């Protein structure tokens, strides 16, 4: 490969202030012709001038531009309650139409904002007109055609023939033109909706360029298009919340409190985190490519890690054999009688303790006013004092001799 240094790139006619540009070209490639080279340099010079003017205008009128975008965001918001009362189209049909529009958007290689503007035009039209089920795809194609004409280059705009082919010739050519005019007239030709990606770029313009974080933010925002909960949510809130969630997933620092990116809504972040659990297969395949930094795989790995951590937190740790306490039966067998004496509830003996030669002498009832004549009807055996027992006779409280002695004693008096 040969290396040629073109010094004319640093001249005053080229639009560059100074410097030498080193161009590598194959020896077999023909040299650029002079007219083509001049046109290319003029186009590049215009691009640099436009970028510089745009940067200066953005710095001078940034606050005014932001206020206008927030105002238009509210004015061009769809009405989800009006879409709910549609007679034929239902919310379960929305993912099928969006998958079709995402594939068409990728096939024509349109700008990211074109897809978000397409869905906004579709939802705003469905908020004001009754849409039949057989025309739902036709309205989506008309919205895609309008959005592409509004933001993309002319050579990128799909033709009626291409849209008809993608719809399998379900609609005639005139139907696309009629629906395009009907959508524009219904919306009052108000197409300038500030899309979510424009708010995202405004939030990251002062930060270091991070393509992975921006692509993951776009992935989350496109997932949000599929769900009813985000149809009537402001684009600014949705964009900043998706950016905050993407930075959290990637471990990036959040915006400072003085920056525009710090105005995200925590509730919206949690809602987005719940909806990204099961993204569309079309979107996952789209954002798995190198062009989008493979962020769909990054999101899948993050969700799998969180699921594993949650499962481990719910599952109790199985104790080892050494730490397992012995069962009650094993403890009783190993401890013996002492085990029951140490843990049993103390019980009061119900009968007098036996002695070797007879019973303990019961107490004598004291005499006094409280123990008068009426007290003699009390249980007599409690006041009985047996004679001194002999070693050959053992008295027992359940013996048959005890009632006889009671009868002999009951006839006596004090």
Walk me through this protein's architecture.
- The protein has 414 residues and is mainly alpha-helical.
- Among the domains are: 2-51, no CATH class; 79-186, Cyclin-like (Cyclin A, domain 1, Orthogonal Bundle), CATH 1.10.472; 196-314, Cyclin-like (Cyclin A, domain 1, Orthogonal Bundle).
- It has helices at residues 34-60, 62-75, 80-84, 94-107, 112-128, 136-151, 160-166, 173-186, 196-204, 211-224, 235-250, 266-275, 281-286, 295-314, 328-335, 337-343, 401-410, and strands at 2-6, 21-25.
- The protein has a two-stranded antiparallel sheet with strand order 1-2.
Summarize the structure.
By secondary structure, the protein is mainly α. The chain has 17 helices and two strands.
Characteristics:
cyclin-dependent protein serine/threonine kinase regulator activity, mainly alpha, Cyclin A, domain 1, globular, cell cycle, 2 strands, 414 residues, disordered N terminus
Which secondary structure elements does this structure contain, and how are they paired or packed?
Layout: E1 2-6, E2 21-25, H1 34-60, H2 62-75, H3 80-84, H4 94-107, H5 112-128, H6 136-151, H7 160-166, H8 173-186, H9 196-204, H10 211-224, H11 235-250, H12 266-275, H13 281-286, H14 295-314, H15 328-335, H16 337-343, H17 401-410
Q: How many strands?
A: 2
Shape: globular
How much helical structure, as a percent, in the residues? 40-55%
Please give the largest β-sheet: 2 strands, antiparallel
CATH class of the domain at 196-314: Mainly Alpha
CATH homologous superfamily annotation of the domain at 196-314: Cyclin-like
- The Rg value, from CA coordinates, equals 46 Å
**Structural class, please?**
mainly alpha
How many DSSP helices? Answer: 17
Taking the alpha carbons of the first and last residues, their distance comes to 142 Å
Low-confidence stretches: 1-32, 339-344, 402-414
Could you give the order of strands across the largest sheet? 1-2
CATH architecture of the domain at 196-314: Orthogonal Bundle
Q: How would you state the average pLDDT, rounded? A: 76
Q: Output the helix-strand order.
A: EEHHHHHHHHHHHHHHHHH
CATH fold assignment of the domain at 196-314? Cyclin A, domain 1
Strand content: under 5%
